[in-house]
Design brief:
Blueprint: H1 3-22, H2 27-35, H3 38-46, H4 50-60, H5 70-83, H6 98-104, E1 108-116, E2 121-129, E3 137-142, E4 147-152, E5 161-164, E6 175-181, E7 187-191, E8 200-204, E9 209-213, E10 226-232, E11 243-244, E12 250-251, E13 262-273, E14 276-287
Parallel strand pairs: 1-14
Antiparallel strand pairs: 1-2, 2-5, 3-4, 3-6, 6-7, 8-9, 9-12, 10-11, 10-13, 13-14
Helix pairs in contact: 1-2, 1-3, 1-5, 3-4, 3-5, 4-5
């Protein structure tokens, strides 16, 4: 994005949000907007320093989570990610725990997951790490102090560990979270609202069952979105390696392995933040005998 276009975009974004805040039915919203560092964040974007814009934004989001304020900071977040090559340039931010940074850079994944079946949808958080030699303890808390994920992994398998939260009936609230591994320096992570777009659509008609896959919107510097097929047995053990599936297709036939009881379709979209790769993931699980 060239400078003149970027400047126009940021000025337009700022004016739009200023009008929203001024017209807000709640005087508190307008006051909140005026007292934050968002203006400094806009200026940093115009100066082509997205890592400074990120720093100012996370300072704002340290306040207690209020979902009604998300429309004021979310466009700014999206533009920071866009201008920083999907967040990859944000890793230049300094952290006090430099040893931890060198050892674990680009190895932490935070997945915000929606799990659906024919009856309901649930939401869950998952932290994934590679190249680990010991068990890992994880705490993820929001700016209100509420803990959303806490636990210890099992012994690493080929260096891989994962820790899952409990399942929630509502989406994980958007805002700033603190991710702590093994009691180290907390890592700030921004969770955005879960997308309203269904990337996986299941049609169960009398003559045919089909699954449609829609490509998530993605920055060209981000990891390409992926769609995978996974077959599980009755104990939900994976029967064979995941099969990657092209987007914008309608799937009507599947080659189910022997003993398959469940089919999961998983679509993942991700971006980068300092020290962390953050993903939104949609998973649809169906009985294998549907196919």
């Amino acid at each position: 994005m060239n400078y003149s276009y970027r400047s126009f975009f940021i000025v337009a974004l700022f004016m739009s949000l200023h009008v929203q805040a001024s017209n807000s039915p709640s005087g508190n919203n307008s006051a909140w907007f005026a007292k934050t560092d968002l203006q400094l964040s806009y200026q940093a974007l115009m100066d082509n320093t997205p890592h400074i814009a990120w720093q100012k934004l996370t300072q704002v989001l340290q306040q207690p989570v209020r979902t009604e304020l998300t429309p004021y900071w979310l466009p700014l977040f999206n533009e920071i990610i866009k201008q920083s090559h999907c967040g990859q340039q944000l890793s230049s931010l300094p952290y006090q725990d430099s040893t931890y940074d060198q050892q674990h850079e680009d190895r932490i994944r935070l997945i915000v997951l929606r799990k659906s079946n024919l009856r309901q949808s649930l939401y869950q958080l998952k932290v994934v790490l590679n190249d680990q030699s010991k068990k890992v303890s994880v705490i993820l808390s929001d700016s209100n102090g509420k803990t959303w994920l806490e636990g210890q992994s099992l012994k690493p398998q080929d260096g891989y560990v994962e820790i899952e939260s409990t399942e929630y009936f509502k989406p994980i609230p958007a805002g700033l979270y603190q991710l702590t591994l093994n009691g180290s320096q907390p890592i700030p992570v921004v969770i955005t609202p879960f997308t309203h777009t269904n990337w996986i659509t299941f049609k169960n008609e009398s003559t045919e069952q089909s699954i449609n896959l829609t490509t998530p919107n993605s920055n060209r510097y981000c990891p390409p979105p992926t769609a995978q097929q996974q077959w599980f047995d009755a104990q939900y053990q994976l029967l064979e390696p995941s099969l990657f599936t092209p987007f914008n297709t309608q799937i009507t036939q599947f080659q189910a392995p022997a003993d398959a009881r469940h089919l999961s379709i998983v679509v993942t979209q991700s971006h980068f933040q300092p020290k962390v790769q953050v993903a939104q993931q949609q998973r649809l699980t169906l009985p294998a005998d549907f196919f």
